Q: What sequence folds into this?
């Protein structure tokens, strides 16, 4: 059973996003970014209370900007999905989770050492240039169930 309900269009959205956000991080880095996207669709807490679909996650606006820089700036996100990234997206949608993004709802590239918290959320680990952060269990129990 899939981790979250999805359509072919959602596989393409994640595939385009992971290429745009993490192509330089390789296959593993793209899996981690895809995992954050799926976690946000599962989370019924914090900034993600009103997002339930992959499309809502990808195009969510926070503070007047899209949550993902790749949507805002264009670049690779607006190119077609490639089969290699589609396979990774489907893998995460169906079953894959991995540390440091296993329960993460946020990631970013600080172009410096990863800070110990990000907007009050604890650091869970780093993969190449991306730092990952997950909510405390008492703050967002739903992400730990999905």
A:
């Amino acid at each position: 059973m899939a981790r979250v309900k999805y359509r072919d269009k959602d596989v393409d959205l994640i595939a385009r996003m992971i290429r745009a956000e993490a192509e330089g991080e390789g296959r593993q880095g793209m899996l981690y970014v895809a995992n954050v996207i799926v976690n946000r669709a599962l989370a019924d807490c914090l900034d993600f209370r009103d997002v339930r679909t992959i499309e809502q996650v990808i195009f969510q606006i926070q503070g007047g900007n899209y949550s993902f820089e790749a949507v805002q700036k264009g670049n690779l996100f607006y190119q077609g999905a490639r089969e290699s990234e589609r396979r990774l997206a489907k893998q995460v949608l169906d079953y894959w989770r991995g540390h440091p993004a296993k329960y993460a709802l946020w990631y970013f590239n600080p172009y410096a050492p990863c800070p110990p918290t990000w907007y009050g959320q604890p650091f869970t680990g780093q993969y190449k240039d991306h730092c990952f952060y997950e909510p405390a269990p008492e703050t967002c129990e739903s992400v730990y169930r999905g």
Remarks:
- The longest helix spans residues 26-42.
